[in-house]
Amino acid sequence: MNIHEYQAKQVFAEYGVPTPRGIIAESVEQAVENAKELGGNIWVVKAQIHAGGRGLGGGVKLAKSLDEVKTLADEILGMTLVTHQTGPEGKLVQKVYIEEGADIKDELYLSVVLDRAAEMPIIMASTEGGMDIETVAEKTPEKIVKIPVDPAFGFQAYHGRALVFGLGITDKAEQKKMINFAKKLYDVYMDKDAEMIEINPLIKTGSGDFIALDGKMGFDDSALGRHPDIEAMRDISEEDPDEREASQYGLSYIALDGEIGCMVNGAGLAMGTMDTINYMGGTPANFLDVGGTANAETVAKGFEIILKNPNVKAIFVNIFGGIVRCDRIANGILEATKLVDVNVPVIVRLDGTNAPEAADILKNANIDNVIAATDLGDGASKAVAAAKGEL
C-alpha cells in the first residue's frame, strides 16, 4: 500500500524527521486559505498522486503570490498528470499540498528500501538529489551510496559514518544532523513495516539543516493489521479498480499490456507462466494468482476481471493442484462459462491432485472454446497461437 506525500510527512513528524510546514487542499479556495495560514511570500503547490516524477510532469510549481497560488491550484487540480511512473494514461489529481518555501542550499537523495539479494534493508543516498535515481544509477552509479543494515543489530554509528563520508559531508555539525536524520528514517521504516521510503530531494538549508522536501512511502500489505493508523491513510481512488475488486475475492491481480490473460495458482508459477508465454512469442495481459482456496465463484470472478481488458484475445489457465484440487478448478471453469460470457479461447493445463478427474470433466463438458494442454510449454504455445487466431 502506498500513501501520499502529505501523509508520509505526517508519519515523519511522529519521529521528528524535519519537513516543511504544509496543508492539504481539495479545492482552489482551500489552497489559497492554506497559503494564507502558512504565511510568508513563497509557496509550493504540489499535486498529490501515488507516483514519482510529479515535478517533471508539471505537478509541482512555485508560487510567489496568493494570486499565483490560486492560478496554479486551478491548473493542477483536476489535471491528468502523466509521469514516467503513471504510464501514458496518467493519474487524476484530486488534491494539492500547499507547502511553505524552503531555503535550499543543496539537494540530496535518501531512501530506505528492501534489498532482496542481501535480505535486509539498505540505505541508499546520493549527492544527485532532485533527479530520477534510475538515471543516476544508469549514468553515474558511483554517486550512489549503499549501506546495508542488518535488522538484528539495527542502525549503528558505523552506518552513519559510512553515510556521511559517502556523501562527502565534512562539517562535524552537519554530519551529526545527517546521521540523526538517517537513524530516524530507519526507525520509521522498521516500526511501520515499510517496504520503501524515499526522499527526493532531501535538502540542506543555508543553516546546514536537513529537511525532507519530498516523501514517498510504501508498506507491506500483510502487516497493515498491525498499523490501523497507516491503513486509515489508504486512498482507494489511487488504486486500480480491477486490482481492488480482485483483492476482495482473495485474488492477486496486476494488469499488464499484453493480449493473453493468465489465471494461475501460486506467484512463482504465475511468473514462470508469463515468462514462458513471452518465450513462445506472446505477451501476458495480466498477473492473476487465484491462490490455494479457489472455487467456482473466485474462478468466475477471475474470468470476469481478465475479460474487462479489451486487448485479451486468449486466456491461459495453468493450475498445479496441490492445496487446490484440479477437479475443483475444472468445475469452476465450467461454472464460470455459465456466469460470464467467455468469448475468447481458454487454454487449460491442469496437473497435480485429481488431474485425471479434471481432464474428464472438461472433456465431457464439450465446450468449444476450452482447449486442453498437456504441460506448460504446450499450454503457452497454444495460448500464443490462439491469441494470433491460428488455433
Write a structural description:
The chain is an alpha+beta fold and 391 residues long. The protein folds into three domains: 1-20 and 103-238, 2-Layer Sandwich (D-amino Acid Aminotransferase, Chain A, domain 1), CATH 3.30.470; 21-101, ATP-grasp fold, A domain (Dna Ligase, domain 1, 2-Layer Sandwich), CATH 3.30.1490.20; 241-387, Succinyl-CoA synthetase domains (Rossmann fold, 3-Layer(aba) Sandwich), CATH 3.40.50.261. It is built from 13 helices and 19 strands. α11 (326-339) links the parallel β17 and β18. α5 packs across α6 (172-191) and α11 (326-339) packs parallel to α12 (355-365). The longest helix is centred in the middle third of the chain and has 20 residues, at 172-191.
Indicate the CATH architecture of the largest domain. Answer: 2-Layer Sandwich
The level 1 CATH classification of the largest domain is Alpha Beta
The chain-level mean pLDDT equals 91
Q: Which range best describes the helical content: under 10%, 10-25%, 25-40%, 40-55%, 55-70% or over 70%? A: 25-40%
Strand content: 15-25%
According to DSSP, the number of beta strands is 19
Unreliable stretches covering 5 or more consecutive residues: none
* Through-space gap between termini: 40 Å
Q: What structural category do the secondary elements indicate? A: alpha+beta
Shape: elongated
List the helices and strands and how they pair.
Layout: E1 2-3, H1 5-14, E2 22-25, H2 28-38, E3 43-47, E4 60-63, H3 66-76, E5 80-81, E6 91-92, E7 96-100, E8 106-115, E9 120-126, H4 133-139, E10 144-148, H5 157-166, H6 172-191, E11 194-204, E12 210-212, E13 216-219, H7 228-231, H8 241-248, E14 252-255, E15 260-264, H9 267-279, E16 286-289, H10 296-307, E17 314-321, H11 326-339, E18 346-352, H12 355-365, E19 370-372, H13 376-387
Parallel strand pairs: 15-17, 17-18, 18-19
Antiparallel strand pairs: 1-13, 2-7, 3-4, 3-7, 5-6, 8-9, 8-11, 9-10, 11-12, 11-13, 14-16
Helix pairs in contact: 2-3, 5-6, 10-11, 11-12
